[in-house]
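Example (one chain per record):
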Amino acid sequence: MKFPAFSLLAGLWFVAPAFAAGPIETNPYAVQGVEVDVTDVSAKAAKDKALVDAQMKAISQLGENLGSPDVAAELAKLDVKQVMPLLKSLSIEKEVIGPGHYQGTFTVRFLPDKVKPLLSSLGVKLPEEQGPPMLIIPVWTDEKGQMQLWEDNPWRKAWESLHASQAAIPIIIPLGDQDDATTLSPQDVTANNAVKIEAIRRRYDVKTLLFAFGQPGPEGGVHARVVGNSPLGKITIDKVYTADTHTLADSTVAAAQRFQQLITDKFRSDQAKAAGKAANAGPQALAISIPFAGPSEWNGLRSRILATPGVVGLDVTSLDAGGAAAKLLYIGSTDDLGNSLQASGLKLAHAGAAWSVVPF
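Predicted structure:
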């Protein structure tokens, strides 16, 4: 088989749905999926207590995410008065409310400037600057040649096991909920349906979307294929990964971990090169024009330009209904800039002395 080209609960309970848009948190100082279950004299009292319990549970989880179980244990010793000033915001992902009972799942965000000294005092090496997030959609083809996109399968489980949404390069795996299934089908992937693919990209609010195709390989291995453009450059992976155990489950995990290691190494290498260039030369300025059809396209182009590695600024000098004139500030050579923009899906074109940035 070849890879394709490209409710209410009973009684008085109330269920609040999870957020439908932008559901994945990439901030390393946030903790997603914090579950609490509290019983008290009333639903309100239970919820009030749950809000506090969520913060206390989250600070310990943050210590484990960024440090170790030992760091988590130390942070668990903090009292409420010590934890509350560290809080930035708290969001309810879902909740179930009943008489004298509250059950909820939260995203808890902490203030970096407040938690960094605390974590440093416990010996935690704080995260480096994050790179651009990537939405990875695992596409599995089973032994019978059936394509599985949102179903439970070993390939999807392997990518979810990375827990990399808050890593140096955040890897976002779609929720696989009803909204995802309605937006994108296996047939859409096979047909490379640009409209449907763009819709799923917009749902998760990322600039890079890659399909990771997988299928069983020989001797318990997995044949993995990930090909596409990203801000880190063109990604081309097409090989069989086989774990030492020669089991499909372990091989799928090995393949996903290898992908994460490759993009992390590339990001750190790019950072080191950029730092070296910056130490020897300041940013250069290039006058460019940016044609666009409307405000929505302009906002998208501007965001993609600013997210491009090596670009340090975009000073707009004029803006009208048909385009913008701007001064692009960047580190490195014009060739470096062109290559970086190309990886972001943009083209640096010139006619004579005039330069422009346009999408492919």
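Caption: The mean pLDDT is 87.
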